[in-house]
Every structure is written in C-alpha cells, then in structure tokens.
Amino acid sequence: MRAEGLSRRYNGVAVLHDLDLAVEAGGVTAVLGPSGSGKSTLLRLIAGLEPNDDGSVWVAGRDVTRLSAHRRGVGLVFQDHALFPHLDVRANIAFGLVEAGWSRARQQERVEELLRDLGLELLAARRVDALSGGERQRVALARALAPRPAVLLLDEPLASLDRALRERLAEDLEARLHQSDLASVLVTHDLDEAATVADQLLLLRAGRSVQRGPAEALVRDPVDAWVARFVGHPNVYEGAAVAGLPLEGGEAAWLRDDLVEVLSADDRHTPSVEARLLRLRPQRGGLRLDIEVPAWDVRMVWRGATRELPAGLRSGDMLRLVVPTAAWRRLPNALPPDAEANSGRAAPREAAQT
Ligand code: ADP
C-alpha cells in the first residue's frame, strides 16, 4: 500500500502534514509517536474511516482515495478488539464475510481455515465475552483477515494486555504478518513492540514524519535530540558546553552509555574520569546506574550487565569512567512539538539528517 501527501485538518488546525508511507506486501511498518502526534488519524485516513484533506491512498496498485472504508480492501484490528460479545467466535470471524455477500460454503471454508491457522478450533463455539484478552486478540485478527484484505491496519492491538502476554503476542504477530502477502501498518506508542513486530518504523511528531527506518537505525542514529530521547536514550544534554564539548546554539550532546566503561576507583591504568555512583538498581535485562561526574558537572545513566562492573558496587561508591571520544555525539536540537505544531513552519526533520 501507498499513501502520498496525506494531510488532515480539524477546524483549520493541521494534525497530519503531507505524509508519505509505502509498505510492501509482506512488510510491516509501525507508526510510532507520542500521544496526539497523529498516529490514529493516519490509520483512519488509510482505512477511509474519515476523509483526508489532501493526498491519496493506494491499495494493491489501485487508487482508493475516493472509496468508502469497506470497499478499500483493508482489514482493521482495534485496541479494544471491537468484537460482538454476544456472538460466538465463529460468528465473529464470519461477520465481514456475511456483510460482503460470500456464499455460505465459502464462508464456512474460510472460517474453518482461520480457526485452524490461529489455533482457535477449540474455542469456535464459545461466546467472545468468555475469552481471555489474548484469545480475543486472535479472534479480532481472524475477523480482520477473513475477507483476505491486501492491507491490515492495527491500532494498538496489544495495548490492553499485560506485559508478558504482550511480548508473546508481539512475536506471534511478527511471524504471522511477515509470512503473508499482506501489507501491514501497526500503530503503537511502544518502541519494543514496534521493534518486535515491524521491519520499518515511522516516527511522528506533531503530525509530521521525523524519522523512518528499521528500529536499530533509529536507536543507533537518531536524527535529533528529541528522537534520541524518544527511543529511550537517557543521556541527552543541552547547554553552551557539556563535559568540555562546546555546543552551538540549537545543538545537544548525546552520551552513549553503551560505549562507557565503568572501572573501580583505584583502577588507574586507562585514561578515565572520576565519578560517583548515586544509585544502583535492577531494570529489565540488567542494571541501571545513576552516576555523577563532578569534573563535568554532569549526571548520567549507565545500563548494562553485572559482569561488566567492578565487584561489590554500592550506592555512594567512587568510580572511574572510561569515556571514549566516540561516546559523545552532537545532535540537532528539535523544537518542542507544540512549538513546531503552532509555528506553522515547514521544517521536515529529515532535513536535519546528515
Ligand atoms: P495519536 O493517535 O498519535 O494519539 P491522534 O491521531 O488521535 O493522535 O490525534 C492527533 C491530533 O488530532 C490530536 O491533537 C487530537 O487532539 C486531534 N484530533 C483527533 N481527532 C480529532 C477530531 N475528531 N476533532 C478534532 N481534533 C481531533
């Protein structure tokens, strides 16, 4: 599918600006961004649930911009699953096929196929309100896939589930969506989920595309300080100078903690800077250290594994840090999203890419 130059205004205020998106068959693009950045609006425009002000939408080589939602060849999965609670699983999956006028025999064949594919056979006759969150999610997926759409749009499909289940289902979704000849667009605010399910990310800020690419590219090469913070880098600094690194107006400095080595205070072999451990706590997959570097007047976060650290570290301990030059990166500073949205400036962030 392809969307070109999509724009949307509400009461004269633009919430989506000239957005392009292309997803190949078998591809999955995740649309990411903070709340209010226009993710759901983008999905609704592609689905045809509301009209776009400018631009066009193409599905399987066909311009569907003027077609209503049910004629676009697009399947939808919503966060709340929007299933019919009083109907059983089979009837929920068949719903779109009945609407589309499929013959009874073809309906049955397709529903049985989906029940099998999604491991729902034993639940086929169960009412949807007697299913778990994960099971409902699979029914919603089966229902959306039933009429064999060319494009599948998923709006926060895992948001209502607990973390462990979300992680499992994200892996499952990744395998399903990439095996098929569907083009999928997934809206999420969760970078981990986007990185698991999608092969491409599109990051929105205030209705504009800020950066796109595979998840690892956004994490490794954020185009500006805002993106660096959005993808979870904790050490992004502003000011005239940071740690002796002079910054131009509109520049920020990013310290990559993955390139910083933590040594004990008495380790003097390598050029290093003195630091104090303020706090040490476990976090998912490792440890998080809050560290103060008095010589630089900087506080930083280091994340890593216990085995990378001197033994027996405690909060309050002195340390030494090895900080190679390559651990510092200058990044353009982005305007706060509100300033950008209200300024009416045409400043696509890709322009900042080097
Ligand atoms: P996201 O999905 O990223 O949270 P949305 O696409 O829901 O963002 O919203 C983008 C912007 O458009 C927000 O500022 C929101 O308040 C505004 N908006 C969304 N729908 C409407 C509407 N029907 N009328 C007016 N403003 C809307």
Radius of gyration: 24 Å
The string of secondary-structure elements, in order, is EEEHEEEHHHEHEHEEHHEEEEEEEEEEH
Strand order of the largest sheet: 6-7-8-3-9-10
Range of helix content: 25-40%
Spans of at least 5 consecutive residues whose pLDDT stays below 50 are: 337-354
Query: What would CATH call the class of the largest domain?
Result: Alpha Beta
Q: How far from one another are the termini?
A: 28 Å
**Which ligands does the model contain, each kind named once?**
adenosine-5'-diphosphate
Number of helices: 9
Structural domains: how many? 2
The biggest beta sheet reads:
6 strands, mixed
CATH superfamily of the largest domain: P-loop containing nucleotide triphosphate hydrolases
Strand content: 25-35%
- The second-level CATH architecture of the largest domain is 3-Layer(aba) Sandwich
Structural class, judged by helices and strands? alpha+beta
Kindly state the mean pLDDT as a whole number?
A: 91
* CATH topology value of the largest domain: Rossmann fold
Oligomer: single chain
Strands, count: 20
